[in-house]
Write the structure tokens for this entry.
Amino acid sequence: MRKFLLAGLCSLAAPFLAHSQCVADPLIGSNWAYNIHTPSGGVAAIGTFRAISPGFLDVVETLNNNGAVTRQAHVNGRYILNQDCRGGEIMIMLSRAAVQLEFYLADGGLEMKFASDSWTGYIAPAVVAQRNPVGRTDDAVFTGRARRLTPGPVSLPFACPAGTTNPLNVLAATTYSFAAANYGNPLHPALGYPSFLGGDTVVAGIFDATVSPIIFGGLQGNLAVTQTIARESVLAGQQPGGITRQVQSTGRFIINPDCTGGELIINTNRFAVQYEFVFAAANFSEMFLLADSTDSALLYGDAKKF
């Protein structure tokens, strides 16, 4: 599997500015959660954006670029709508590179479907030598989706429910099913040794979230997890593959102060995976997940309330 390393500075492609303007902007003032990734793994991002004025986005994102992680960065974004108002183009900065996406609205305007409409980044020479000795220079393309967090135009960012005394309580006494996948090279590109979840890996499971008091009057978010992990054998058997079924473990969670997302830490008998997540529904019933620790392979997926 090829994985792409985003690098360099990409200018905004000319076609981005070439569309006719939609008369009634369906995005202005709205809040969205999104996830995008390269189909063969390597680069993925999750985040939220808000259309703060016609054509402009305020974006907060977490990016995993082949093991180089940038967490909750504020970046710029742009959008333009097709004349029929049913889709358009969106540009989001990933670190120093611009990703330009064609999008189509779905589910009554509550969802976007993404596909790259320009090439972004490149395979850096060191990555070519490691993974692609024939020296191909394909650019990275992205797929993904976004979900609207607010049902109609609003002027304020997405926030905690009124009366929330502690953001942890958003997940108190809830259950979510989750799934995540890693497609890619078993060698950790940033550290140069096999990652805990090398090669193609898929994970599915369910967790129960509870909140308990701790010393000095604080609260702690706890997870009781059951998951199944399937991994391919890589590095000539140095990392044996196989399927581990219905592993029971524990974990922790935290919630950002604005309730837009947080972090999950899910343990197994061999390692812990730390996921950054953003809520992808106004009622907190869905999450987009992205592994954001630099010592495990890239995993991305989603979770939905049971």
